[in-house]
Amino acid sequence: MAHTQIEAAREGTITDAMYRVAERENRDPEFVRDQVAEGQAVIPANTNHDALDPMIIGREFATKVNANIGNSETTSDLEAELEKLHTAVHYGADTVMDLGTGSDLDAIRETHVDHSPVPIGTVPLYEAVKRAGSPAEITTELLLEIVEKQARQGVDYMTIHAGILAEHLPLTDGRKTGIVSRGGSIVASWMEANGEQNPFFQVYDEICEIFAEHDVTFSLGDSLRPGCLADACDDAQYAELDTLGELTRRAWDHDVQVMVEGPGHVPMHRVAENVERQQEVCDGAPFYVLGPLVTDVAPGYDHITSAIGAAMAAQAGAAMLCYVTPKEHLGLPDEEDVRDGLAAYRIAAHAGDVANERPGARDWDDALSEARYAFDWREQFRLALDPDRAREYHDQTLPEDNYKEARFCSMCGAEFCSMRIDQDARDEGEMESLTNEEEATDLESSPAAEVNRPPVGTHESGDLPSAIDDSDERSVEQFGDD
User: Fold this and answer.
1) Chain segment 82-93, per-residue pLDDT in tens
2) Residue 59 is assigned to a ligand binding site
3) pTM of the prediction?
4) Does the annotation list 183 as a binding residue?
């Protein structure tokens, strides 16, 4: 029996997870199987993650969004992390990465896996540093022990910083911001202290064997990603990318699924170049990008600067976007930051899908536009990416129920509302009326993937700790592997 999704796909088997993914994406199960078999898409689904509702990441499917959460040495609160997990699922994260570096890492990780309907990702290197006491004291034996433990706990994908090599380090000497990847800086420090090659690179085949046993997906870390526009697309970044391409093919040889992480800070005119180069070097393996941030001047607003680059990356073929919150570069995000970051990135992902003309992706936009023109405020709220925020902003100035029937909002008022003026002119003049119920967009029959239809939070989160009651969320069936 196949241990991994890619192994089963290569054998011609459509697993239960593939059938579920096909349902969520409105695609043919055989197409899903083919994409997984070719390594063009991944279904992160550890065999030990019983609460998982399978999803797929690949350029031929709806663009996905990851939310990073995690505690730190200065904020180590189990309940706060579980609430962040709930918030992330509630506002539409397709996957969640636990980047915790503080206390209770095992308890937090196990609770996340026990309750999360979305894939959970981790960075084993962080735990290795805590266990060893310093980067220089990490051993390959410790890395393998931690990787295997987290695989047994049910982690669906792990960032493995195997692509940064000793010969790459001199290439960073002329940078403005050096090595900004937390994992990359740790591995570089280890190599400098020990005078040896990257420890992850040394035991990469052993990691592949562990991943194959539990069906853990590689998220190959971009340790040399640029941390500012000046460092984008330099020799260091692209040298590591070449190594990541080699590592991708080695993982495939072990029947292990792979996605590749990408930059970072990249000016707008070079975003597509980054995506296209990764797709070529890594033989089409899914590209998972952080941002990219298209300017360096907006601390406090980097969810916006990065969402611009994220939308462009999605249009160019990136498969998953790692959100950035307003706190990026400034501090550890809280619940509201998670909400704002996810909103920005769900917008970017959806915009990319619309630009790429994914089947039915624009139906959501059309349905909301029709509600807006009809002054159907309640329907506008229902269809909004964040219904609570849309209702809250409307009701700040016009809270009474009678304004839910009004043909204006507080921005223009009744006299200067352009849509009201247009409607009245059409009713009184020769212009044709735009109201036609028979032509209204029917989202129920839309071919759009689940993530491109409301509500954004499509998972039942009642079983998550500190869950928020949300009657609009859909229930989730559990699917296992063959």
Assistant:
1) 888 999 999 999
2) no
3) 0.93
4) yes
